[in-house]
Design a protein that fits this description.
The protein has nine helices and six strands. It is of the alpha+beta class. It has a six-stranded antiparallel sheet with strand order 1-6-2-3-4-5. A hairpin with a 2-residue loop joins β3 and β4. The longest helix is centred in the N-terminal third of the chain and has 66 residues, at 27-92. It is elongated. The two termini are 25 Å apart.
Length: 325
């Protein structure tokens, strides 16, 4: 994404190509292409963040399911051992009860379908056998769920890798285009991309946030100005756009979702005219970029690689939503 200054710079044309010179893509066209590539890389970054978050959640579910399966198998083994002890005692006293023979067969579940045999076991053994059947059914269901989660986890891991490749490809192409610009044009782009990076944000005195949490988050975001954009990062040394917002609110003790799309729905929507410091501002139709409102028509955000966390006008691109946490 280009700042307003960068967009103005991109509108300036170059002189005609000298006769006999190799045709070269106009610099303003190259800069516009870089802007588009940065936007596409940011969209892919948010997809990467979501896929990575999904994979993390699935890893926890798989670990829990595997632990639950192990505990269930231990319970079943203890029940079978207890019932086997009864069978051993009966054998030593002159024979194994037919009911226990059926129980200890390869398909003990069928035992309960033959109610006429139940009265040959004591109440305790019958209760244990019912528990065994219940545990076996639960264990089968947990194993099936764990298998499904493992399959989904592998799909999520593949998706993470795919989105990572997409981000790296877009950023590599953007760097190539920037390096192809004449020195003067590349310097102009660099100057524009640093607009608002340094210096204090003017005129914030007297502006108040909607809550102490929003105030603390805004203070954290302001303190992050100048730190580098690092795609997929959520601080503290580097940030992508949604990582900055998530980290800032974490400093206030508030947990936010990882992606800009989810952050757009993390609170109550308000009109821009009511925005106060700490409110979340998401951009573009797909909410693929996000910043934090700081007051006086300014946001703090992590723009794109090469441009550190900085202030920019809140209207730097089409606004998707303003959200108050």
């Amino acid at each position: 994404m280009l700042s307003a200054a960068a967009a103005a710079t991109a509108a300036v044309g170059l002189g005609a190509t000298p006769a006999g010179a190799e045709p070269r893509e106009p610099a303003q066209t190259a800069r516009a292409r870089v802007d588009l590539l940065h936007q596409q890389a940011e969209q892919a970054t948010e997809r990467f963040n979501k896929a990575r978050e999904d994979a993390g959640r699935l890893r926890e579910r798989v670990a829990h399911a595997q632990d639950s399966v192990a505990r269930g198998q231990e319970r079943i083994n203890r029940m079978r051992e207890a019932l086997g002890t009864v069978a051993g005692a009966q054998y030593r006293s002159g024979g194994v009860d037919p009911a226990l023979e059926l129980l200890l067969s390869s398909d003990p579940d069928t035992y309960l379908e033959r109610a006429s045999v139940l009265d040959r076991l004591g109440d305790r053994q019958a209760h244990t056998l019912r528990e065994l059947r219940h545990e076996q059914r639960d264990l089968g269901q947990e194993r099936a769920e764990a298998a499904r989660d493992l399959t989904e986890l592998e799909r999520s891991r593949a998706e993470v890798a795919r989105h990572k490749r997409a981000v790296e490809r877009k950023l590599s192409e953007a760097r190539r285009l920037l390096n192809s610009l004449p020195d003067a044009e590349r310097a102009a782009f660099d100057r524009a991309s640093r607009s608002g990076r340094d210096g204090a944000l003017p005129g914030l005195d007297g502006l108040t946030a909607s809550s102490r949490y929003a105030s603390a988050a805004a203070l954290a975001a302001r303190g992050a100005v100048g730190r580098p954009y690092v795609w997929g990062a959520n601080g503290p040394s580097g940030f992508d756009c949604s990582g900055l917002v998530q980290w800032s609110y974490a400093q206030a003790g508030v947990g936010l979702p990882r992606t800009s799309q989810a952050q757009a729905n993390a609170g109550r929507r308000i009109p821009l005219s009511e925005a106060r410091p700490g409110d979340i501002v998401t951009y573009r139709g797909d909410a693929s970029h996000v910043g934090m409102y700081m007051g006086n028509g300014q946001v703090v955000h992590a723009p794109y690689p090469g441009a550190a966390v900085r202030y920019d006008p809140v209207g730097m691109m089409p606004i998707h939503a303003v959200t108050r946490v």
